[in-house]
Amino acid sequence: MFTNEMLQTHVKSGKTTTYEGYTSRVPADAITCKDGFRVSVQASETHYCLPRDYKGPYFKVELGFPSEEDELIAEYAADPDDLTGTVYGYVPVDVVINLINKHGGLLNTESLTK
Q1: Measured between alpha carbons, how far is residue 45 from residues 48, 51, 104 in Å?
Q2: pTM of the entire structure?
Q3: What is the extent of the structural domain holding 38?
Q4: What is the 3-state secondary structure (H, E, C) of the chain?
Q5: What value does the mean pLDDT take over residues 53-76?
Q6: Residues 73/84/77/103 CA torsion (nearest 10 deg)
Q7: Higher pLDDT residue, 23 or 10?
Q8: Half-sphere exposure of 19 (CA within 13 A, CB side)
Q9: 30, 27, 32: which is closest to 54 by C-alpha?
Q10: Contact 34, 106 (CB under 8 A)
Q11: Which end of the chain has less Cβ packing within 10 Å, N or C?
Q12: What is the pLDDT at residue 21?
């Protein structure tokens, strides 16, 4: 079962770097679920998330480019006419947890243990 702790670990899995006073984070890998559903889940100062920082804990995150349409997240789509080719801003973490669990949970949890 995918949990909030796993979500928080995932979005922080991209390395954070600072260059000339500007901090950025390499995006975390897309999540792949056991049924093949894939979606990008990100949170940082530059994503549509809350809080907009590099620390969290996050209570809303940004999703992007799901491999298929899903009614659980449709209302958050930036482009409701292209549900697999858009980002989804400020999605509550409980919605994301339900989405991942609906699709069977994570296919691979190795990145969450590093």
Answers
A1: 8, 8, 30
A2: 0.91
A3: 4-113
A4: CCCHHHHHHHHCCCCEEEECCEEEECCCCCEEECCCCEEEEECCCCCCCECCCCCCCCCEEEEECCCCCCCCCHHHECCCCCCCCCEEEEEEHHHHHHHHHHCCCECCCHHHHC
A5: 97
A6: 10
A7: 10
A8: 5
A9: 27
A10: yes
A11: C
A12: 81
Of the candidates 94, 44, 85, the one whose C-alpha atom is nearest the C-alpha of residue 64 is 85
Tokens of 76: 């958050």
Q: Which residue has the tokens 């792949």?
A: 32
Name residue 56's amino acid.
Answer: G
Q: What is the pLDDT of residues 9-21, one digit of tens each?
A: 999 988 888 888 8
Dihedral over alpha carbons 79, 53, 29, 102 (to 10 degrees): -60
pLDDT in tens, 52-64: 998 999 999 999 9
Pick from 61, 69, 68, 67: which is nearest to 95 by CA? 61
Name the pairing type of β-strands 22-25 and 87-92: unpaired
Per the structure, the count of domains in the chain is 1
